[in-house]
Write a structure and sequence with these properties.
alpha+beta; 385 residues; homodimer
């Protein structure tokens, strides 16, 4: 008899950051046994897992040793050793999402070619192997150059608008995309279980910090036409179908002025753009991911309230133990909920937590977003006297 | 400078059961350091606390030693050593709710006299010291006899309807109440912070299992007149005001046929009747308790969706490692969310978990409640072959 999920089934998560931390919060309700692997012994998950192993996520032997005793493995970060995950899968362990899919997504060039192969809408592109190849495309500027690998949270991405930018282009295998004259950036989170059942979360609209190139805030439902929402949802469903995907997939997309929806990129895991679901939906993205990888029915993704999410980023010039200046003030605003990630030190621009905001409509949310943003700052604690 | 709650402030919880477990889930978002004391080394909290101490909650020295290193103490069960908590308070530690209040609530006779003293509506009663004194009240039958201390989940309570019941009356200091011809049992959860700010959750209506004398299911909002809801809310607010209370207080009440609301009893902690708030309100009862004892502003208690809660009780004749038979079936019902408590063994009638149900209205909820109740049973796992 297969071990039921609540009877000591051992789930291993590669990565012990905030996504793993919130996944543990959800897993407690399902009484799943959780093991975490993370290189940082003080990672956000360290106090909450049944077992916590300090080690590299990209080292084959470390991942193999971590998985030896587990029944099921998943990830909360893409940058993991997928060869080890495949070997564990070959041993008969369940690994979701499939390591082959994770490997494909790790490489933005592969991702992009996958869209093209399956007629999934995305921006026109070429693949370039070095800076010289980029220069040859200068007539197509403005362009966006993305390193095939190792890009994360805006790193490994350059916007090339003029000759000066071109001189700074990466001299490495890249994806070179036409700059998309988008109206909005949106995201959809979709989940699929091994039985093929799917569920799509409400579409969110993201507003970026132009300096840090990180999401400044987002809100749901997105301000889109019904046709655009349906197009975004259909793209997400087509993606998980074509990928034969199991687990949670975050799909970042562009909404163009002419109404088209194009895929920007995807992430094979819970995602920043899905945090709002913890407070605003019956099923959070974390519970949904668990349901999917445990082979359970998908949960209801209906929005119970319009919601917004503001990232709490480390303030410029502050490094060290974090102080959430103004947190009492934002807690006094009705419908404002902090989620602190427990990172031991703040750094400029580091994701230290997020705030979910519930409100009756977008104007109410917008007012609270501004209040929150003007009231809280993540600084470092003054040194002890 | 006082230690901010997120900067390693050490919160100790007396009791490591399901209420502590759900309190930890909420505390993770506030990055509070949690220590648990519980006599059972496999208590539901054991894997999730920063420190877990196995020891008696009623032993003075054990509680003193547990509290020595902590900044703030609270409880998730009433049956604790309040003398030790008072001594820790005298040392300058924060202890919420106040140990004096916990001690008063521990004794149902004291509780009842408190209501009488403050003109809080409750059933007529007398205090009796032994069975002979109970017999002397036989003309007032039907009566409810409650032991002053040690009653919990229906234990220590007898309904006295006839001579045969009288012969079985407890021969110990008791509270003897007139049987209340109530129409409904309801509950209100209220919270108050040290600044005196209060917040009241939506009123819930409880339906009891007549055999086990435990809540079978409950739903919110209760089917009451606006005047009854206002009366229940006013009683809860008057209670926390008169008690100068800090933390979460659960108030179980009777709604009488004539519209009156009477207090049944109170609990100085998160409560079974507040579990629905995890999924159905922006602020859960657990987050609210934390906000209160940390001196933070009270959270919004608005109901985002009508909700119901079904306790998952151990099936008769089943003892041993638990099997949640039919859990996949109930997960397929939209808006159904399990919360398993991770208790190592099931026993007949033991609270093993609960299920929250979201639905658009009471008829929709009622239908799902029946589906859930007829689909899931907590049995023991078959012995390994």
């Amino acid at each position: 008899m297969e071990k039921p999920f609540y009877a000591g089934k051992k789930l291993g998560i590669l990565g012990g950051g905030q996504l793993g931390r919130m996944l543990i919060q959800a897993a407690i309700d399902y009484d799943v046994h959780i093991s975490i692997l993370d290189p940082n012994p003080q990672a956000p998950c360290h106090a909450y897992a049944h077992t916590f192993t300090t080690g590299s996520l990209t080292d084959y032997d470390t991942v193999m040793a971590f998985g030896a005793d587990l029944d099921l493995l998943t990830i909360e970060i893409e940058n993991v050793n997928t060869e080890a995950l495949e070997a564990l899968q070959a041993q008969g362990k369940e690994v979701f999402p499939d390591p082959k899919t994770v490997r494909m997504i790790q490489d933005k060039r592969e991702q992009k070619q996958f869209y093209a192969r399956h007629d999934l809408p995305t921006s026109p592109f070429v693949l370039t192997d070095n800076r010289a190849a980029v220069l040859a495309e200068k007539a197509r500027m403005p362009l966006v150059q993305k390193l095939g690998k190792a890009g994360y949270d805006g790193r490994g991405v350059k916007v090339l608008k003029n000759e000066a930018d071109l001189a700074e282009a990466f001299d490495a295998p890249s994806l070179l995309e036409d700059f998309v004259p988008f109206e909005k950036e949106i995201a959809v989170i979709v989940a699929r279980n091994p039985q093929g059942e799917t569920a799509v979360f409400p579409t969110v609209e993201m507003v970026f910090d132009p300096v840090l190139n990180l999401v400044d805030y987002l809100f749901a439902p997105a301000q889109l036409s019904q046709a655009q929402v349906e197009a975004a949802t259909a793209i997400a469903l087509r993606l998980v179908d074509k990928l034969d995907y199991v687990g949670l997939l975050a799909v970042e997309m562009f909404a163009l002025k002419d109404g088209q929806i194009w895929i920007n990129e995807i992430a094979p895991r819970p995602h920043n753009s899905g945090h709002f679901s913890i407070k605003a939906c019956g099923t959070s993205q974390y519970e949904q991911h668990l349901r999917a990888i445990l082979g359970l029915p998908m949960g209801d993704t209906r929005l119970l309230s319009p919601a917004a999410m503001v990232n709490l980023l480390g303030a410029p010039d502050h490094r060290g133990p974090a102080r959430y200046e103004g947190i009492e003030d934002i807690l006094a605003i009705p419908g404002v909920y902090p989620h602190l990630y427990g990172k031991s030190e703040t750094k400029p621009g580091r994701k230290m937590g997020h705030v979910t905001i519930l409100g009756e409509d977008l104007p109410a949310l917008t007012q609270k977003i501004e209040q929150v943003k003007s009231s809280i700052q993540v600084k470092s604690l003054p040194a002890a006297p």
